[in-house]
User: Fold this.
Amino acid sequence: MPPELEKHPIKYIRENMAIAVGLVLIWRGIWYILDALDKYLWGDPSHIISATVGIVLGVIILYLPHHNLKALERL
Assistant:
C-alpha cells in the first residue's frame, strides 16, 4: 500500500478522482473538436478517413520522442 494512502486515504482518493475526471473532460473536449474538424474538412463526417489519419498521426507522435514504439507495448 502506498504511504500516501496509509496517511490520508480520503484525500488520496479525492485527488486521484479529480485527476481522472479532469483527464476525461480534456479528452471529451478534444474528441468534440476533432469531430467538428472532421465535419469541416470532409463535410459529412468520413470516419474511416479521419480514423486512419488519426492512427497514423498517433503512431508518429509516439515514435518521435524516442524513435521507437515501446509506448505501444503497454497496450
Remarks:
- The chain has a mean pLDDT of 81.
- The chain has two domains: 1-44, 45-75.
- Residues 9-42 form the longest helix (34 residues).
